[in-house]
Write a structure and sequence with these properties.
single chain; 204 residues; alpha+beta; six-stranded mixed β-sheet; three-stranded antiparallel β-sheet; 13 strands; globular
């Protein structure tokens, strides 16, 4: 994910950052994802096949536990309004939310962070943003669990206990290990790291 240069119209009042982000989103090809993290507009490229493969593997893992049910829902690409900046928002690859999330809308087709039990990112060329900037942004939003499938380094990160813009607990798992997520999300979820890394591995 990279910072985007934004050109302002010559006429009228200057655009807000949010207006610039929405205009940029309309101009980009399908699949590109525009976000505002820390007051900076960022653009994620359209995901490749292995990215989608890994994401589907994760959706199936969460769905098998019954988390996509009456009390919680598993969503792909929901918008989350962030308190890290006046117009910050993110669009995580995957999220586990309370089932009543529709009753908690926020600005710009996003939802209040209080309904998010977990957010998950599958890295692309934007891996540094997922591993750094979003850690701070999601922690400020007090998202209880942040999971990252780092395809570049073949690891799964599980971050919990958000406090003061960071996560007090940060566990890293390699192939051959299983990553157990906190029971607080509503069910016991165990991720096979080798399976996820293989699903997300780009073609050599």
């Amino acid at each position: 994910m990279s910072a985007a240069a934004v050109e302002h119209p010559c006429d009228g009042e200057p655009e807000s950052l949010l207006e610039s982000a929405n205009r940029l989103s309309e101009q980009l090809p399908p699949g590109y994802r525009v976000e505002i993290i820390g007051g900076v507009i960022t653009v994620a490229p359209s995901p490749d096949g292995p990215h989608a493969d890994a994401l589907t593997t994760l959706v199936l893992a969460f769905g098998a536990t019954g988390l996509h049910g009456e009390e919680s829902r598993v969503l792909q690409g929901p918008g989350i309004w962030l308190p890290s900046g006046p117009q910050d928002y993110a669009i995580p690859d995957l999220a586990l939310v309370d089932a009543d999330y529709r009753e908690h809308p926020a600005e710009n087709a996003t939802y209040d962070p209080s309904v998010f039990r977990l957010v998950l990112e599958v890295t692309s060329s934007n891996y540094q943003n997922d591993l750094r900037n979003k850690v701070s942004a999601y922690a400020y939003a007090k998202i209880p669990v942040y999971v990252i499938l780092d395809r570049r380094h073949g690891r799964v990160h599980v971050l919990t206990e958000p406090a003061d813009g960071t996560y007090d607990s940060h566990e890293v798992y390699a192939p051959g290990q299983t990553a157990e997520l906190p029971d607080s999300i509503g069910a016991k979820v165990t991720l096979d790291v080798a399976e996820l890394v293989a699903a997300g591995r780009p073609r050599a």
